[in-house]
Amino acid sequence: MEFHGKVREIVPYDHRRHTGGYGFIQSEDNQSIFFLLSWANYQPVQVGDLVEFETEYDENQRLHANPVARDESKLVKNLKQCLEQGGYKSSRKKLPVPGVTAINTNMTAAYEALNAMQNKFGIDNDVQPASMLSTINEWISLTVELSNKFEDETTLQSMLIKRNILPKRKQLEELQNLQVMIRKMNYEQRGRYYGVRGEQIVQAKLEQHHLQYIKNPTLPEFDTNGNVVGATEIDFIVISMFGIHVLEVKNYGANKNQDQRLTISKDGQWNRIGATQENVTNQNDLHIAAVEGVLFDAPELKKINPVKLLATPVFVIPNENVEIVNHSAEYVVRTGLLYDTLVQDVRRARQAVLEKAEIEKVMTVLKSALEENREFQYFLPNSEFLTDAYELKRRYNIAQYIYDQRESIYQ
């Protein structure tokens, strides 16, 4: 005859002292019955298990129990009652893992797509839109942590996995891989946000002084033999009577909580506190080479003195939060000094670098050389990302409720 009860206590076997290896089951009629772990028909036996057990007497007429199997039927019944009391239901659909897709698109389109999803998230949850990725990343962390807690409740864990409330092992791996992608997207998105904001500040300054410019052009990149080997994206090319200037906007320190000191060495190395060393000078040198490569090869500009077509690099820091220490010969200025930097040579010589007709010709040549909407690979949330994230959070809430109520489920 089989009885039902709950494992109340286990004393593991101590190999050094040769003691332990037994436990006690609390029966339905409230008896505490001794059993040997080695006699159990299933392993591992854990405290809190609801079990079916048989009984027998030893030679001294002491009652012993023998756990035959977990009493899952009672556990299932208790679990269903608990879900009903909490207003929850299990799901036949597998637990969703929000998806990220590699998409070939241009930077503007990538920024707008992610920004639109963030705005929807902000409206749905009454939070700042920019918190979307970090919030969903936190939801995943909570789900993974809770799943690990259930490692001590193996029977209940198995039941919740079957009911698609907790993730399976493969889904846990997918969620952890997703966190890596989310952190990457979050980093890139913050960079795009502050980068776009910085460019907007610089653009307003250029328009204030009625300067002609090309924003975010993508020009062909040449090797040492003059062959096109790729493309390079530039923040701004300013073409005016003051000459041709290539602007690289670095919105370092845009987050006011991150005061930084920017030091540029004589050889062009950029060093920031809390950041790896960068050679931004080399980056803009590629931009200069791309611009001059287009201009020097243009038949329409052969009558213009090549010296006039030389491009001048200017680095713009569009905020006041960074202390700039510049030991190089490069122009590194804040937005307020940008115009003075562009015009200083002309003011000194009192002679325009480019005439009006030359400005128009240069603009035409550069615009014709543009690789319109050049696409790069971006990792972006797929169309079901938000829906799946919300469902993942809902099932986490169910699992957390079950974990909090587990004592009543085991009774």
Short description:
This protein is α+β, with helices and mostly antiparallel strands. The chain has 10 helices and 17 strands.
Description:
- The model has no long low-confidence stretch (mean pLDDT 85).
- The chain folds into three domains: 3-70, Nucleic acid-binding proteins (OB fold (Dihydrolipoamide Acetyltransferase, E2P)); 75-188 and 382-410, no CATH class; 218-369, no CATH class.
- The strands form five sheets. A five-stranded mixed barrel has the order 1-2-3-5-4. A five-stranded mixed β-sheet has the order 7-10-11-14-16, sandwiched between helices.
- The longest helix is centred in the middle third of the chain and has 40 residues, at 169-208.
- The relative contact order is 0.14.
- It is an alpha+beta fold.
- The protein is elongated.
- The two termini are 21 Å apart.
- It is built from ten helices and 17 strands.
- The chain is 41% helix and 24% strand.
- Strand 8 and strand 9 form a beta hairpin.
Q: Which properties best describe this structure?
A:
411 residues, alpha+beta, OB fold (Dihydrolipoamide Acetyltransferase, E2P), 3 domains, 5-stranded mixed sheet, 24% strand
